[in-house]
Amino acid sequence: MYSETVMDHFNNPRNQREIPDADGIGEVGNQKCGDIMRIFLKIHDNVIEDASFQTFGCGAAVASSSMATEMIKGKTLEEAWEISNKAVAEALEGLPPQKLHCSVLAEEAIHAAINNYLEKMGLEPWEEGEGSCAGCSGCGTD
Amino acid sequence: MENKHEIYLDNAATTRTHPDVVSAMLPYFSLHFGNPSSLYSIARSSRTAIEEARRKVAAALGADEREIFFTSGGTESDNWAIRGIASAHGKKGRHIITTAIEHHAVLHTVEALEKEGFEITYLPVDEYGMVSPESVEEAIRPDTILISVMLANNEIGTIQPVQKIGEIARSHKIIFHSDAVQAIGQIPVDVRTMNVDLLSISAHKFGGPKGVGALFIRRGLRIDPLLYGGAQEQRRRAGTENVPGIVGLGAAIERAAAMMSEKAERMKKLRKRLIDGLLTIPKSRLNGHPTERLPNNVNIIFDYIEGESILLLLDANGIAASTGSACTSASLDPSHVLLACGLPHEQAHGSLRLTLGEETTEADIDYVLGVVPTVVQRLRDMSPLTPKELRTR
Ligand SMILES: Cc1ncc(COP(=O)(O)O)c(C=O)c1O
Ligand SMILES: [Zn+2]
């Protein structure tokens, strides 16, 4: 069901740890939905120097977290913000359609972590664009 | 992935077709290929084989051979029982009683009838997944035409008090159907003591082939066909018979019935070893009933982790299992059975079902008991929900 890249990131997750002195932490998802993702950022001069994650969820959720943290390391906050769930899914060589919501969580977790940092710095959080949480029929309903 | 170990613990999903069963089936593909409805002599062996299989199924269920009708499996049997009764008795009443924990073959069928104007009562279950006979009695209305309660649940293995429910149905003159798909070969199934009018079985759950099953229909019961066409199966189920499949069903049920009590004893011992071992993992709980459960069923919740990732890591270790997690279903909903037992969503996501089979050995169980704690710990270390004291890093 999963691509080799997904299985590789699931079996050997990159950056799977806590950053105790993180500058920004973002947590998204809910237990009802089945996936919860927490992303930690270490930020210096507007650049993400280190990123890590903790995830409760399926193979796709773990692999998306792992890939997303790899993709944002070394990026400016603006660049990291622009990384879409589509880009994460593509980097993973695709996800089954019913699993796309898991990669949406990765995008949201990055946004939440960046905004957490901005707020800590006394700055305005950035606005979400359109298209988040699409396809996750489990979130927010009933 | 290449594995040293191949441990199949998903026998509730399906079982290996037993080699003896395959041998029994093989002549009915190319050698005795005649259409059982034909008159000429080369078709006679097909007809004889079907009737022989019917006798075996009837004997295993304590039924008369004229009460056994072959189908394409558990799903068709459930659909036929429910739709056939709704159609034949819909003038008398439009109320059906079932339970919240039935297989989708039952639940989605009654949901379809709901759209056609039938009213359905879904009986709740207790924390062990047990339906109370009193709740059945209370749900009965003057317009109730059918009660459908499964004999044993496929996810948590809970065995329902079907005999009592059957007595209640009988005393109210209401037709009673039971889905016994998971029970055959595991616990005694006798249509007379159970007081059932209709009973569904499926060959691939007890060493037979996939795509063949049967519906027991009590003699004299009025039921409409599901499939219309030729005059097969006493004009009740049209379609040229799946002769090799039916022969396989007969061979498998005869085998399963003969070895049942011995196998059940062995399964119960292995089950106990597995449950006791798994419950030493902190924050783990058994789902389903502690004693009134199928001898081969183990279903455990591990807090803070998600089922699909457990399965993937077990698979990497050569263990095939199953989960009630939403992430393995297309619907994103966790198991309706675990939710009906009162589990919160987050726990229903973390269930692991291991269903033993006739090939399962003590060494398999010990291997699994070695692997699961490592897998659980690895995922707990990864999870944001895990409390500090349960983390190793
Ligand atoms: C309780 C129950 N009923 C019905 C079915 C459906 O049977 P089949 O796969 O033969 O259609 C199954 C098997 O998945 C089952 O476990
Ligand atoms: Zn997921």
UniProtKB/TrEMBL annotation, chain A:
Pfam families reported in the protein's UniProt record: NifU_N
Region (Disordered): 1-25
CDD domains xrefs: IscU_like (cd06664)
GO molecular function: iron ion binding; iron-sulfur cluster binding
Domain NIF system FeS cluster assembly NifU N-terminal: start-end pairs: 1-121
Any one GO biological process: iron-sulfur cluster assembly
Gene3D superfamilies (alphabetical): 3.90.1010.10
Entry-linked InterPro entries: NIF_FeS_clus_asmbl_NifU-like, NIF_FeS_clus_asmbl_NifU_N
Protein origin, superkingdom: Archaea
NCBIfam families recorded: NifU_clost
PANTHER family to which the protein is assigned, alphabetical: IRON-SULFUR CLUSTER ASSEMBLY ENZYME NIFU HOMOLOG
Protein name per UniProt: Nitrogen fixation protein NifU
UniProtKB/TrEMBL annotation, chain B:
Active-site residues, Swiss-Prot/TrEMBL: C327
GO-annotated cellular components: L-cysteine desulfurase complex
InterPro entries: Aminotrans_V_dom, Aminotrans_V_PyrdxlP_BS, Cys_deSase_IscS, Cys_deSase_NifS_bac/arc, Cysteine_dSase, PyrdxlP-dep_Trfase, PyrdxlP-dep_Trfase_major, PyrdxlP-dep_Trfase_small
Keywords linked to the UniProt accession: 2Fe-2S, Cytoplasm, Iron, Iron-sulfur, Metal-binding, Pyridoxal phosphate, Transferase
Domain named Aminotransferase class V: residues: 7-368
Sequence positions that bind [2Fe-2S] cluster: C327
EC number: 2.8.1.7
Pathway per the UniProt entry: Cofactor biosynthesis; iron-sulfur cluster biosynthesis
Catalysed reactions listed for this entry: (sulfur carrier)-H + L-cysteine = (sulfur carrier)-SH + L-alanine
Principal location: cytoplasm
Residues that bind pyridoxal 5'-phosphate: G74, T75, N154, Q182, S202, A203, H204, T240
Origin superkingdom: Archaea
Keyword Repressor listed: no
Cofactor(s) listed: pyridoxal 5'-phosphate
Stored Gene3D superfamilies: Aspartate Aminotransferase, domain 1, Type I PLP-dependent aspartate aminotransferase-like (Major domain)
Any one GO MF annotation of this record: 2 iron, 2 sulfur cluster binding
EC class name: transferase
UniProt subcellular location: Cytoplasm
Subunit and partners: Homodimer. Forms a heterotetramer with IscU, interacts with other sulfur acceptors.
Protein name: Cysteine desulfurase IscS
